[in-house]
Amino acid sequence: MSSVAEIFNTMEYGPAPESEKEVLSWLGKHERVFGHYIGGAWTEPGQLFDVMNPATSKTIARVSEGTKADVDAAVAAARSALPDWKGLAPHARARFLYALARGVQKHSRLLAVLESMDNGKSIRETRDIDVPLVARHFYHHAGWAQLLDSEFAGYEAIGVVGQIIPWNFPLLMLAWKIAPALAAGNTIILKPAEFTPLTALCFAEIAHEIGIPAGVINIVNGHGETGAAIVEHPDVDKIAFTGSTEVGRIIRKATAGSGKKLSLELGGKSPFIVYDDADLDSVVEGVVDAIWFNQGQVCCAGSRLLVQEGVAERLVAKLRARMEKLRVGSPLDKAVDMGAIVAPVQLERIRELVQQGVSEGSTMWQPSWACPTEGCFYPPTLFTDVQPSSTIAQVEIFGPVLVTMTFRTPEESVALANNTPYGLAASIWTESINLALDIAPKIKAGVVWVNSTNLFDAAAGFGGYRESGFGREGGREGMWEYLVRQGRGSRVEGRGNVRGASRRKTAFDSTSMQSSAEGAILPSTLDPQPSTLSSSSLSSSSLPPVDRTPKLFIAGKQARPDQGYTRRIHSPSGRVVGESPEGNRKDIRNAVEAAHAAAKGWARATGHNRGQILYYIAENLAARGGDFARRIDEMTECGKRRAKHEVDASIARLFTYGAWADKYDGSVHSVPIRGVAIAMNEPIGVIGMACPDEYSLLGMISLVAPAIATGNTTIVIPSADYPLAATDFYSVLETSDVPAGVINIVTGDKDGLAKVLAEHDDVEAMWYFGAREGVRMTELASASNMKRTWATWHERDWLDAKDGEGREFLRAATQVKNIWVPYGE
Ligand code: NDP
């Protein structure tokens, strides 16, 4: 036996295993075989698949594979439970959520051990992090249920929601999905990952025990095909997904044009940035939590360590020393730092990527000790000499593998951090709060932790930028994902297409076009006048109108369309009222470039400045209000009064967003640390927008104004039928101090141009207001870079301030970044 002195020297731990007795008895009670939980009851087991404990490679249960019929039954159960659940008083739903939180706490030990056995993660994490956060999530959302009517007035549950979750935080992801959905009054079909279904089944039992009404929560197990059946089910109103970007993209495409609301929480390759004044010992512990937490199988893992050159060598030496002391072993051992990798296939993927890193020339280092040979274990791994372009620096490894790169200046650190298509999270380590808060907004990520990492709480939203997905989970911002404006269910049918959409074809009378000498196409009505006119006979009435080539508006200037094509614009009764230029792919490309060039400066302009410019636009529009009203009446034959009304409403709308520009504040979330989580509303970046076909001026201003008020730059495709109010608007913009590139206007074939914008990888969001087919096209084409879309075919009353302006528009124009700043010594 070792003496105390020897133990003190070696600091060896003895084994401290957590008992699995309770889990074995729970599994035994179910004879280790599970059906689905549908309509408040367990289904008979069907075709079964094995569930393995990755630490032992032994099968611990068998679970039914969900068929299409199972999904149909679950959706039907959720649909029939919806009216009563949605109709419950908020306080009643709050009571159920509160009971779920209590139920989770009561069974916390069972859940923690079951999670460790199912997933392979260490009991320290399931017991101290996952399960407490699950309970916290239900408590927090019991609060939102209680406050629903006052805090989300005018909004209601979306309906039946399908939720698909991954294997890395099985129970926590369930809570992140189920709690807000229930609080808002939705009913649910949830599919756990095939590797880790057990805690969801245990949770179903807890929900049953506390009396959640039948059909409100349905759990259907299965593989990807079961998930796909949920996604494609016509009676599901919203899909919430967490998992790989690859599957996220498939889901984006599968739901395109269906009207289903979608939130996606996808992969990441998050930077962990260390400046030379950071406390390196804290940094080392931070790295342990960033990349070796949950064996690195964390979507927001700090997997890219970016270190300022001067301290890199010292930090790497400290890290190696720390890694030498990490302990990998049985997940149920309380003294273990890292458990098992979830499954052999994931272990193989990690091995392959590490091998690739070595063969691409990076230096790999692992501690001297060996992992257990039974089960799926992989040691903590550190790469140095990594090029930013190498595979291991770009691809999400989803394992305990850290890659290190260096930088010299803060500017370089930002460039390196943002050198990824992802944008989920980032950690910033420096003793200078000024530097930290200067860098945080520059990083493209939904969550930024200052001198900390992997902090989560129900009160603070979590979610990505760019290809890490869209939507937030947690906090007030997460609740919006499960709500819709009253009476405006996103899938309300039968409202028809918007006015004007059906007559687009006849308005573009291409047969009356003829080629000009330069290859441009001019309308045949602009025939050259006879050249016999002598100068003495010139009188203004006999002269042809001065030929005004219709132009686009790009980079603050009127620009000829690339191909010189124009389209003749007719009024509804068939009168030619003018021409508008026909933009093409190249014009869009130029507009996107201009919008990008302007984006940085405009995003940094103060709210006050942006507001001033919006007021100035309003002022100049008012000065020419009569002209605009005449133009609208001429184009649409809507009558003088209505045209004037539209111009007046446009001026008022500009005032609304001039007012909002310095008032759409973020908030400070109350999170349970000594610190704050600052939720900032950040602009999305470059937004492409296809405007409604009706209300050609007001519709356009209703979209552009909130976007620019919040710091975005825009490429605008005006109404295809009535674009002349937009082309007249150039001169208003030119005299209103709008910086070049903030608003770019490209007229022409609305759907064709919208598709080019939606496919463009440098456009960060796409808005489309028009026909349903256009909505589908926009959502499909936007899957390429997972851009945020706001696409709708429902008619809106643009004249009504409730329908046509406000927070709904501001939310679409922004994304929330949560910056966690701990304080104290
Ligand atoms: P997936 O994205 O494939 O799985 C996530 C969930 O989606 C699972 O429940 C899965 O079911 C389900 N699913 C799979 N295909 C479809 C489909 N076509 N339609 C609907 N649902 C579907 O992730 P994996 O588990 O396969 O892991 C692969 C990689 O993804 C990892 O190596 C990692 O890089 C990344 N990943 C990222 C996560 C994150 O949080 N960002 C989480 C998990 C993985 P089933 O499990 O039964 O196949």
Provide an overview of this structure.
With 825 residues, the chain is an alpha/beta fold. The chain has a ten-stranded mixed β-sheet, with helices on both faces. Helix 14 links the parallel strand 15 and strand 16. Helix 10 packs antiparallel against helix 26 (772-781), helix 22 runs parallel beside helix 23 and helix 25 (750-759) runs parallel beside helix 26 (772-781). The two termini are 41 Å apart. Residues 492-538 have low confidence and may be disordered. The structure holds NADPH dihydro-nicotinamide-adenine-dinucleotide phosphate (NDP). The site of NADPH dihydro-nicotinamide-adenine-dinucleotide phosphate has 26 residues, from helix 9, helix 10 and helix 13.
Task: Please give the structural blueprint.
Blueprint: H1 4-10, H2 21-29, E1 33-34, E2 37-38, E3 41-42, E4 48-53, E5 58-64, H3 68-87, H4 90-106, H5 108-119, H6 123-151, E6 155-157, E7 160-164, H7 170-184, E8 187-191, H8 198-210, E9 217-219, H9 224-232, E10 238-242, H10 245-255, E11 261-265, E12 270-274, H11 280-291, E13 302-308, H12 309-325, H13 344-359, E14 363-365, E15 381-384, H14 391-394, E16 401-407, H15 410-417, E17 425-429, H16 433-439, E18 447-450, E19 469-470, H17 475-479, E20 483-485, H18 504-507, E21 513-515, E22 521-523, E23 552-554, E24 557-559, E25 566-570, E26 576-581, H19 585-604, H20 607-623, H21 625-636, H22 640-660, E27 667-669, E28 675-683, E29 686-690, H23 698-709, E30 713-717, H24 724-734, E31 743-745, H25 750-759, E32 765-769, H26 772-781, E33 788-792, H27 801-804, H28 807-812, E34 814-822
The structure holds NADPH dihydro-nicotinamide-adenine-dinucleotide phosphate (NDP).
